[in-house]
Structures
1.
Amino acid sequence: MPVKYEINVPATSANIGPGYDVLGLSLSLYLTVNVHIDNDAPTDGDTANYNITILYEGENSDGLSLDPRKNLITDTAIYVLACNGFKQFPHPTTLRVNNNIPLGRGLGSSGAAVVAGVVLADIVGSLGMSQQRMLEYCLMIEHHPDNVAAALLGGFVANYVVDRDSSQAIRPTERLSDTERMQRGREEKAAAANSAIAIPPENICQSVRLGCSPKIKAVAIIPQFELATSKARAVLPEKYAPNDV
């Protein structure tokens, strides 16, 4: 029987005040993904397109790719599914995407797409991931937590990324829930079958939702040009003098 889901991911503002790569705030603009899964169809469907069809609507959809490996939402979902032993979407799936977040304007459009992709994979693969595990997958794509954590958790969020070496410490199996234990087993099996798969380290990031007065309102000034995050970050110096910190 076909099933439908709706994924809503908010826009975000990050690097707030002194909180560079630390503080993020979710906003009331949304990326909406309507998911239609045809569970009655054969599971060995269209391997060329990973069993996924993408449809876009809305004013912020121009130029977005319908190729599953070039579209950030579906490419993220395919990565998460691969880490859990799936070569494609388990059942033929159609996405109808309505994006109200301006692209490349500092409102976390790429972070929202990554979060949507991770949530999508969790749904279609019945992975049962915790929010913490979802965040760890997001960081494998986005690399800094401020936007994705605020988009995933909502509200005003503080984050820090722990040292990768220390984050590799694996939680003992007895501390995992049954669902987490099953998911770890899928990840380990997938990694053993394909050494190219990069399974996210555990406990790579910690996030805390902070209090925020409802009297505080956000006003976004949206420029009439796009600027990729990678280019914006490239202008920053590698080191700061103590007087500048």
Note: The first strand starts at residue 3 and ends at 14.
2.
Amino acid sequence: MKLSTVIIFCSLILGISSQNWGTFLREAGQGAKDMWRAYSDMREANYKGADKYFHARGNYDAAQRGPGGAWIAEKLSNARENSQRVTDLFKYGDSGHGVEDSRADQIANEHGRSGKDPNDFRPAGLPDKY
């Protein structure tokens, strides 16, 4: 009974019909992989000034999967930025440290999710591999 309540609630919240659940969940799974790939590439590249590009790219790639990808990209991006604010609070106190960077990250996230070119944030000299 609880599972059916959760499914009905989620379908109302997410705005998807039961026929589209499989598609939505597949898109969300693929979108999560896209986000992970962008994060892994960012860590591997370790390139100064490339953070916003990888934020935009991960969100763009995930959103291209469809509504499920866009949904998971938004949830993961928000979770990342909110967790960063909490860790910054413990590390730096209530100094506002990282607030502007978090805002800039969210702008890049939305830029990518909305279908705009992530290369708008690409820094000069970043290897073509990325």
Note: The radius of gyration is 17 Å.
